[in-house]
Specification:
By secondary structure, the chain is of the alpha+beta class. It has three domains: 184 residues, no CATH class; 262 residues, P-loop containing nucleotide triphosphate hydrolases (Rossmann fold); 242 residues, no CATH class. A six-stranded mixed beta sheet has the order 9-12-13-6-14-15, with helices on both faces. A hairpin with a 5-residue loop joins β10 and β11. α10 packs across α13, α18 packs parallel to α21 and α19 runs parallel beside α22. The two termini are 50 Å apart. The N terminus is likely disordered. Bound molecules: adenosine-5'-triphosphate.
Length: 868
């Protein structure tokens, strides 16, 4: 056995021969210590009987039916099928992003149900990206790096190196300073990346944080043939190196692209037609189901042929050979595969890792015949992993599958010293061989007590050593070695139970069980000791620790916290706004124009009653303007919702920092615009020359605007589309206007409930505040007075309301002549303004706060729904 050193993704793995064999292990075992400076986290994803149905006007539409499968670490899985087959739906379900539809079935990670941190450990590259058009490629990557990379790996230099690495691998380094481009919220088109470049940027961002599983919805669509191949090859290399599982839906891969995939799942009309190694695809459809024959010269790649085969949406042309022509043919083929796949799964559960031998023993004659058939079959291919066990199981089930390949020699792995708390989950070991084939046998449990660590930390399975009830881990599952690597999964669970009892019993148990992984906590440095037995003809050259679930927990703790998220999102907010100067300037011009126009209309407010009337009208109009002006931002709010839902589904950040960053990010621009408009009107119209009045007027304007903007933000969150958001906002604005005391005196209102509703009118409070600021004290000259005729005319025009006819304003106006003054308190009385300026401002501030609380609650609900 050779001792080598493996250096791999930051993990330096010195391998050495054991000084002395460990207790309970045969002397030819091979042992190494891995110094774990960084761990990777491969995940084994499996799904069983997954279904999805929608309620439609014409009834229930089932878009996925009992689909089962698995995605292994180190492998590329192609999700294929005709358009509408359900690929995106399945991807969404597997990536825990499906928020609509009736979902059934189970999705497991390392054999256990998915936990809440699953989404943080994966990456999803959607068909349609959701990048900010005004950010450059580099900025987009930096944003994701800041929000995704663990804190300890997030120094500026490290993040920059990582970004350069992924951009380089996607052939995007040349475009790092190019704007992403696309349609801005206002409808403006920003020139930027081409469609293919955007796609590559999506993939680059997807793999930036080295996720354990990458889901890609049609990563090659829109790419030229060369780029498509480069992208897929890179994904394959990443999978091989880092142990990530890649699941990609793909249409018509060219031969070179198809060759990069290890396994494929074929869907059609929501049925699972096949799931297994790519090399067995033809064998299943042609050798087992009898379709075809496949002729590469006529049909193209195997994937092309199978796509033609399972597509029943069209009348098929002159395709040579026997094909699936109708839906019932398709359903029959799907049923056969379902039976076959279930057989394989149950065989694997009953005899993990041993199914081929067992079945061979049980049915030697049948297998001999099948072996003969296999050798005669031109399409028989090497069975690997599930495929081989599937074959055995299916043979047993009488489905006539080709027999499995002979069992490879076994390898044995032991991890003895563990730096972390194993009760938190799973471990994955990866064994490298010099060639040939072999596999890890599954094992029963063991006890930590049976495996004292090098550091001597473990003892008796007791909680003192950090093991408690989960002291037992077992290697589960099996994998054959194809060209040098295998993955074996270790998980807590069933094996643990068998290991309980006295230390002696546990030791006996583990000796009987064979290969094992033993875990213990190291007392000082992160250290893992791995031991393997000679695996026959396949020389074990390396054992790598690929996953420590507890390390994942630690890594999660290192994820960017609240403050970093806030800083990053706040910077994004400012950047995106500043990068849209036409929009910013356009909106500012609008506010200026409104202010100037209003100022011109009310230029010279006049004195006496005209002055009163003009002032009251102006104040009311300005309040209404500040309620209406936020409508120019509705497209931004709708775009924000899209970005937020996409980001939150990807667990890019949490709602809290986003909300604060968003609120503070828009504040400077809102303040600038409102103050500009308000002060222009104030100055041009010549409202009361007092600092207090001017300040109150401005503050009331700002608060009114912010409240109205908040209502828009809330509407954009609770409604799914922009039209719906407009409906909600317009309803609120109309209510505010009509419930204002400018429109009607509350005491004159016919309905008591309407009077109660006026408390909801922010316009009412704002109008009262500015009225109080303008007419708060003093008298207004009415030297000129009004002619008695005009007064009489006015009185006849006014409704027969005693309050109006006998109002102090009119009475005073009637006393025209020298020394005539209007008591401004009378104006306030008339409009029911009874509180102080400060009170009205406080009420407005409270109103804004309540709106924020409601909006944030709505945002949390939206986030919860997106993270379902
Ligand atoms: N919300 C929904 N309500 C009703 N039907 C839906 C809904 N969403 C998707 N579907 C249907 O589900 C089916 C599968 O859609 P899906 O997008 O998963 O297909 P696909 O295989 O990814 O197709 P393509 O390759 O064209 O992207 C389609 O027939 C689609 O119309």
């Amino acid at each position: 056995m050779k001792a080598k050193a493996l250096s791999y993704f930051g993990v330096h793995v010195p391998l050495q021969q054991p000084a002395s064999p460990m207790r309970g292990i045969t002397p030819d075992l091979w042992r190494t210590q891995l110094e774990v400076s960084r761990v990777r986290n491969p995940l084994l994803l499996s799904w069983e009987d997954v279904g999805c149905a929608y309620s439609t006007p014409v009834g229930i539409k089932r878009v996925l039916q009992d689909v089962s499968g698995a995605a292994n670490p180190f492998e590329l899985l192609a999700l294929m099928g005709p358009s509408g087959a359900g690929k995106s739906t399945l991807l969404d379900i597997l990536a825990a992003r499906k928020t609509v539809g009736r979902l059934t079935g189970r999705v497991c990670v390392n054999g256990a149900p998915r936990t809440s941190d699953f989404v943080r450990r994966i990456s999803y590259v959607p068909q349609e990206d959701n990048f900010m058009p005004a950010m450059t490629v580099q900025e987009t990557c930096a944003l994701h790096a800041a929000l995704k990379l663990p804190r300890d790996h997030n120094s500026h230099e490290q993040a920059a190196a990582r970004i350069a690495d992924v951009l380089c691998s996607m052939g995007m380094l040349h475009a790092r300073d190019t704007l992403v481009g696309g349609e801005l919220p206002g409808g403006l088109m920003l020139r930027g990346l081409s469609g293919g470049e955007r796609r590559r940027l999506s993939v680059a961002v997807g793999i930036l944080a080295s996720p354990s599983i990458v889901f890609l919805d049609e990563p090659t669509s829109g790419l030229d043939a060369c780029s498509a191949l480069a992208v897929v090859e890179h994904l394959r290399d990443r999978a091989r190196e880092s142990g990530i599982a890649v699941v990609a839906s793909i249409h018509q891969p060219r031969a070179a692209v198809w060759a990069c995939f290890d396994a494929c799942a074929v869907l059609s009309l929501g049925f699972s037609m096949y799931h297994g190694p790519c090399s067995d695809l033809i064998g299943w459809f042609q050798g087992h189901l009898g379709y075809g024959p496949w002729d590469s010269a006529v049909h193209g790649t195997a994937s092309d042929w199978v796509m033609d085969l399972v597509n029943v949406g069209f009348t098929k042309g002159e395709l040579p050979g026997f094909t699936i022509a109708t839906r019932s043919d398709l359903e029959q083929a799907a049923r056969k595969f379902s039976v076959h796949y279930k057989c394989l799964c149950s065989a694997e559960k009953q005899h993990p890792g041993e199914a081929p031998q067992k079945h061979q023993q049980q049915q030697p004659q049948k297998q001999q015949q099948q072996q003969q058939q296999q050798s005669e079959s031109a399409v028989a291919t090497r069975s690997r992993r599930r495929g081989s066990r599937a074959s055995a199981a299916a043979s047993e089930a009488g489905l006539g599958m080709p027999p499995p390949a002979p069992p490879p020699p076994s390898a044995l792995a032991h991890a003895d010293s563990w730096p972390l708390r194993p009760q938190q989950g799973t471990a994955v070991l990866r064994l490298s061989t010099g060639g040939g084939s072999g596999r890890v046998l599954s094992t029963g449990g063991f006890s930590a007590a049976a495996w004292p660590t090098l550091g001597g930390a473990a003892s008796g399975g007791g909680a003192s050593a950090g093991f408690s009830s989960a002291a037992a881990f077992s290697v589960g599952g099996a994998a054959s070695l194809g060209g040098g690597a295998l993955a074996a999964r270790a998980s807590s669970g069933g094996g643990g139970r068998s290991a309980r009892g006295s230390p002696r019993k546990q030791q006996q148990q583990q000796q009987a069980d064979g290969p094992k992984v033993a875990l213990a906590r190291s007392h000082s440095r992160p250290l893992i000791t791995v031991e393997t037995l000679d695996c026959g003809s396949s020389e074990v050259s390396g054992v790598e620790l690929c996953e420590v679930a507890a390390a994942v927990v630690d890594r999660d703790k290192q994820r960017p916290g609240w403050w970093i998220q806030f800083k990053t999102l706040f910077a994004r907010e400012l950047l995106v706004t500043m990068r849209n100067p036409a929009d910013v300037a356009g909106r500012m011009l609008l506010f200026t124009w409104v202010g100037v126009f209003c100022g011109l209309i009310f230029w010279g407010l006049g004195s006496g009653l005209d002055g009163v009337r003009n002032r009251v009208n102006l104040l009311f109009i300005v309040v209404q303007l500040f309620m209406l002006l936020p409508y120019v931002y509705m497209s931004l709010y709708a775009a924000d919702r899209r970005h937020f839902t996409a980001d939150i589904a990807a667990r890019l950040y949490t709602p809290g920092p986003y909300y604060v960053a968003k609120t503070l990010g828009v504040l400077p621009f809102a303040l600038a615009n409102v103050l500009l408009c308000s002060l222009i009107v104030y100055g041009m119209a010549g409202l009361r020359l007092s600092a207090t009045s001017a300040v109150v007027n401005s503050v009331a304007g700002v608060l009114t605007y912010l409240i109205a903007a908040q209502v828009q933000a809330l509407a954009a969150i609770i409604m799914r589309n922009e039209d719906g958001a407009f409906v909600v906002t317009i309803a609120w604005t109309a209510g505010n206007i009509f419930l204002s005391n400018f429109i009607i005196r509350f005491s004159d209102m016919a309905h008591g409930w309407l009077r109660a509703l006026r408390f909801l009118s922010a316009a009412n409070y704002a109008f009262s505040a500015v009225l109080r600021a303008e007419f708060g004290s003093g008298f207004l000259s009415c030297d000129g007075g009004l002619s008695p005729d005009l007064i009489r005319g006015l009185q006849t025009l006014l409704p027969a309301t005693p309050a109006l006819r006998s109002s102090a304003v009119l009475q005073m106006a009637a006393r025209a002549g020298s020394g005539c003054v209007v008591d401004l308190e009378a104006v306030l009385d008339y409009f029911d303004v009874r509180l102080s300026m400060v009170s009205y401002i406080a009420v407005l501030a409270l109103y804004l706060w309540v709106m924020h609380v409601i909006t944030y609650a709505a945002l949390l609900l939206l986030a919860k729904r997106e993270r379902r």
